[in-house]
Known about the structure:
The protein has helices at residues 41-47, 99-103, 139-143, 148-158, 175-187, 198-206, 218-225, 239-247, 269-274, 287-298, 315-323, and strands at residues 2-6, 15-19, 29-39, 66-74, 86-89, 92-93, 113-114, 122-126, 130-132, 166-169, 190-195, 211-214, 229-234, 248-256, 278-281, 306-311, 330-334. The protein is α/β, with parallel strands linked by helices.
Amino acid sequence: MRAAAFTDLVGPDGVGIVDQPAPDPGPGEAVVDVDACAINRHDLWILQGDSAMVDADDLPFVSGLDVAGTVEETGPGVTGVDTGDRVVLCPNETCGTCRFCREGPENMCENFSLYHGGLAERALVTADRLVPIPEQMDATTAAALPTAYTTAYRMLQRADVAAGDRVFVPGATGGVGVATVQLCDGLGLESVGTSRSAAKLDRVREAGLDRGIESADVDEIREAVDEPVDAVINHLGGEYSELGQSVLRRGGRMVVCGRTAGGVSEFDVADLFLQHKRIVGSTMGTQPDLERLVQFVADGAFSPVIDDTYPLAETGAAFAAMENRESVGKIVVEG
């Protein structure tokens, strides 16, 4: 089978199409014929050599978390899915034994990891991580949901938001940013988002953004936010964390899930405790979160924003588009 493998950790030029043996499912496993796989900043960090989990000894490495397709074969002991079922993968990998696996939420598993292997014609997966795709939903739409939308959904839960709350989304045009805006719209929240591109902001307004700020300068953005916000959904990190804290109201909450703008942030400690603000870390979501989101989309609550699709042979170009920050919403590789 063909796979779009990382053959060198140098960015998009390091993607090559390689032939690999077709997978054979073992106990509890399934082989999915991949119709679509969304890519994420997580994949790009690996490809750029900016991830501790993959180095030159692991090459060629096949990434890809967000797998959607059709079950081709199941291994011994598999129940709940069968050959021919249309499915999307929850990419969480958990130990199943720690207290968070027992009591929840599973994304806080002490040994939490993520699936990789979707950027290929077939993917070998843990069968009980497969979620059915409703008949009215195509695989490309389903593939957009697992990472960006479950992350945003869980972050909004952790921000303890309620209808009418004002939510600040720096970097509102990326996968998590657009997902947050769409979920805010559905939950009756007011969203304030940023981008350096007026054209991108216009596209996010179409997805439900209430107020856009065209700037990448944190001081300009701070002034433009004007009124304090109830919550900040921060997937950028870096200097945007200090910005997020500064625009929070008394008792406000900022949830952080990424480091695209930098892995180190500064905080005003006095402001943090005197204003009773909260800063919370969050990674991914849970399988029930993904199941709910699939149903929301099936019911017509929203449709994930997909910027562009690429064939498997052009996976390198897909990553180049992500690296160049050309896209709004998700980029999906189709099988």
